[in-house]
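User: Here's a protein and a ligand (magnesium ion). What would the complex look like?
Assistant: Let me lay out the input and then the predicted complex.
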Amino acid sequence: MNTIPIDRTIRDFARIFKNNGHALYIVGGAVRDALLGRPLTDYDFSTDATPREMKAMFRSVIPTGIAHGTLTILFEGEMFEVTTFRTDGDYIRHRKPSQVLYITDLKEDLKRRDFTINALAVDPDDGAVYDYVEGKQDLHRRIIRSIGDPHVRFHEDALRMLRACRFASTLSFTVEERTLEAMREMHHLLSHVSGERVHIELFKILSSPVPSVALFLMHRTGILETLFPEIAAGSGIQQRELHIHDVMKHNFYACDAAPQSEPLVRLAALLHDVGKTYTRTVDESGQLIFHNHEKESVKIAQRILRRIKCSNEETETVLHLVGHHMFHYTSEWSDAAVRRFIHAVGERHIDQLFSLRIADIRATNAAQVPPETFQEFRERIDEQLRDARLLSLKDLEINGNDLAQIGIPRGPQMGKVLKELFETVLDDPSQNTRHQLLEIAKNFWEKRMNLFL
Ligand code: ATP
Ligand code: MG
């Protein structure tokens, strides 16, 4: 493990630095992953050249992270991220540094990094690996270890504690004992870290093979309690007979069982039952009930997603899936009921909702879910999608102008009439003619809407 193979383009790229009297190294995740034989996604480079010097060396340079000394350089059709060697200035309130100091020493640059396995560098010229902190040994032993005293390092930047959990699950590594101990003692500092940074790490956890590796670690160390107390509160909350896990573990295992390629479905799975903790009651016969728990889950999930600065699109999808996860299809459903379901869930979310529901079932009692689950339902949905073609208000044969012409005022009242027409057509698509709909609208307006005036 003393050298790694290097692409020709990268060697050419490095040569330009050398010809200008500078050094360039591949650093961080790419070196770690290459030594582990994992597929490489992106390269990070470090150099002693300052951003100003790099701008003089290359034609196309984008100042992507100039505050931290990072530039993106376009070279032979590739984009390379290069950061000037630096030490971090003062850490403020356990967050990222306020200023960076450029330095010329590779060793110092590597020592400011979070874990030994992330502090390896490779010289692209000869593929030689530089290791000042026993990173290779830890890679070999599959260990995540802070560089230096973990207390000091987590004080500087508390996010590193969450990153340790993230690497444990993306790499299937173990966190070294002293590092773990410091996480147990210092997890509360994570409350100072920005939601955006937590978001990035959480999504990497959700995209790892088995997210519960990180989630259990977060729970054991108290990190879960600090960042997501609503999820941690499900620990020890027992459920009905069919369930073999408490609410928290059920959410974790549902998250594992959702598709790895769908982080939003996994996030929905992690949150789908959080509301159970807050809605649990016991009925007269001593049965546990979780009345309307999915609605409570939506409320709690919304708070969590806002806190970690999820985009509107992410939030919408996750809340939508959480809110609809309790459907109970049987063969007795009428075609109208199937159409209502399609309309409520939305065509583009149906596969995701099925994935969530299958994950939910698997996480209930470790049951195998037969591949034909929902097959009949799926076929009936497809049939409706093919035949009925009526799934949104726009598909009605009349619109607001038509309604205005027969004297229905625009605004919320007209909205109610349109909704009524839509419901009618969902029940019976043959009603979707201009003539029929105008009749129904007039009727509805005269008989029912006057009551609202
Ligand atoms: P990934 O494969 O997920 O990109 P990575 O190791 O490249 O993993 P990044 O978040 O891209 O992780 O960070 C790149 C490198 O920068 C890390 O390998 C590490 O050396 C350093 N680094 C990133 N975040 C921190 C931090 N909070 N504290 C110290 N060093 C960090
Ligand atoms: Mg990276």
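Summary: Residues 28-29, 42, 44 surround magnesium ion (ligand 2) (CB under 6 Å).
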